[in-house]
Amino acid sequence: MIIEGASEPRELKTESLTVDLVVVGGGLSGVCAAIAAARNGMKVVLLQDRPVLGGNASSEVRLWILGATSHGGNNNRWAREGGIINELLLENQFRNPGGNPVIFDSILQDWVTRESNLKVILNSSVFHADTVDNHIQSVHAFNSQNSTMYQVSGKFFVDSSGDGVLTHLSGAAYRMGAEEAEEFNEPMAPGDDYGKLLGHSLYFYSKDVGKPVDYVAPDFALKDIPSLIPRYKSFNATDQGCSLWWIEWGGRLDTIHESEDIKTELQKVVYGVWNYIKNSGEFPEAANLALEWVGTIPGKRESRRAEGDYILRQRDIVEQVEHDDNVAHGGWSIDLHPADGVYGAQGGCNQYHAKGVFGIPYRCMYSRNISNLFINGRLLSASHVAFGSTRVMATSAAIGQVIGTAASVCVENGLAPRDLLEPHRLNHLKQRLSSAGHYVPKFNALERENYATKADIKVSSELSLQSSPHNGEWKKLQDSYAQLIPLYANQKTVMTVPVKVSSPTELRVEIRKSEKAENHTPEVLVEWHSFLLTEDDSEVSIPFSQGEEAQYMFVCFMQNEFVQIGLSDLLLTGLMSVKQGGLAKVSTTARQEAPEGLGVDSFDFWVPERRPEGKNIAFEMTTPLFKYSKQNLISGATRPTSMPNAWAADIDDISPTITLDWPEGEGVLANNLTLFLDCDYDHPLESVQYLHNDRVMPHLVHQCEVVCDDSVITNVKDNRQGVISVSLPAGRVINRLSIKLTNSQGHPVSVLGIRVQ
Predict the structure, then answer these.
(1) Cα-atom radius of gyration of the chain, to the nearest Å?
(2) What domains sit in the chain, N to C, each tagged with a CATH number?
(3) 639-674, pLDDT tens digit by residue?
């Protein structure tokens, strides 16, 4: 029993901690920064002001995680973020096929708990920073659940707080709102009529309870929805959660200090909308629906943006500018929202896509004036326009992994964040990121430290792409469809495709490619062919050739209701088909038509269909095309880009094996073997609402046995991750590694890269 008598004023309990890295904010960007640093040997504290991790992806807000894949609705192929966020999404795909945000909370908790170097402190709000001579020494936080004050000192700090609380408290330079168009020559910069801040959103979920249920709205609920919400006809009884992203408001207020007022207004809207759905008589199908959940905190989009040594801008995204220090990638559209939100007559957003993914410079990831502060997530140093693309969570998570890794390099070498811009240090950072599965655009991780490059590599077989066998299924050309075909420079071939014709017609086939080899926007018409077909025709043969650069060609079968093309069950790394057309969530039309002078491109969308649809087109080539050779194992590319970049075994190889031999006397002392696998980087893997066709990616290596000289050192079963990391016997000279691989679904085994370090 505790009895406290009268006393002088008391102090709260205080706990002091000293670590290498302090991360403020436990959204996805903060989680990935903290995990990356911990895995690199740093002692890390992660301070989160909520009871769960994940930020907008958590069960408190319930927004789906997206990034460069953009729901699969633009031309960014194989664009999903790698590294830690990819691990989380692949695990969520397996554990959480129903897209339950509570399950995703538990996955995040699992991932941070595994890291012995990482201490997570929830429910703790940072309110003060000790900053001396533009250098942060410590931060102070209060935990409302255990009534404890924390003082956490560190060598480096990461502001992942979304609203930039540490940026503000430390004296770091920042901005809020939209720049004038002239500052960065950004034609997309909005004016006052449109508004200069994105608002908040509040989501709700409903549930069919199997019998009629009444709803009595609270007094504060918004009345007369049709007169107050111009887009009220967009409501329906089945939309819920983040499908209602456009229930947004607050862009004309201070999205930090007036956030509670914004939430209160959004609560009025949500309860009023549900009352309208239940009681207006316009939605008889809602009779059995009950309101199951309403968010208690809104999802924030925009507030402060910190200033780094460089401010990302519209041109960097649209023109895909190749900065030397690009260390992460983005690919979401430039997605700006009118400030009036749900009360405005304008559409919910304006989205303009680039022709491919863009790089994000390291200079945008640290403060320009606070010497030991990294700026993370939506705080990235970017203009309001560029922020419209970089703000999404998978992009922010990838940035977080860069920052956690960069902080580790700084601690190890006694460097400041800016010091990593020196070329060999920057290259080291990129190499370390790549070795962890993170994607650095247009960077091939050819490492001197990779002993695999010095080995004699033998493989059981090598697949040469020449055919995609017809499975008996047909696809009617109600839309235009294209098969992506990888061709080497100056290569020529003839492609024969099975067809079924219902009436005499003329079929047009176009051969297209992208202006940039690494893009997949087929804006260049190389040649076209016209085929006069009758019911007696069963195939078409299309000749085409490549130019001076190896890249994908698009063989486009243009819309024709009288023609069907054959399909194939072949599932192979870097081989896919696409359909001409948009996706309503990210593009309302099949073509992006940019207004004159807006500074963005006009082009067609060619997008994949999700499994079980989206099969490859059946074909037979006169000559082999891309060879899935063993050289691709050490090429440095670990995902398809302008070519498949993979080794694959023959379809009939019953025991796919890779063997690395080092000559007698030249064996290696190595600690780790890493395999980079095809986890279908084209699939978006939304964390909630979407029901994905596969719980484990069908392209993957699902089983892997590693033999070191004559000893089996590991046997991985039921793999569901894109990277397999195997510890090698410590202190032992290795002369041979043999890797036996299995795809349990019968698809060709493939590997994107091998590192021995």
Answers:
(1) 27
(2) 13-180+306-330+343-435 (3.50.50.60), 200-294 (no CATH), 451-462+627-756 (2.60.120.260), 466-621 (2.60.120)
(3) 999 999 999 999 999 999 999 999 988 899 999 999
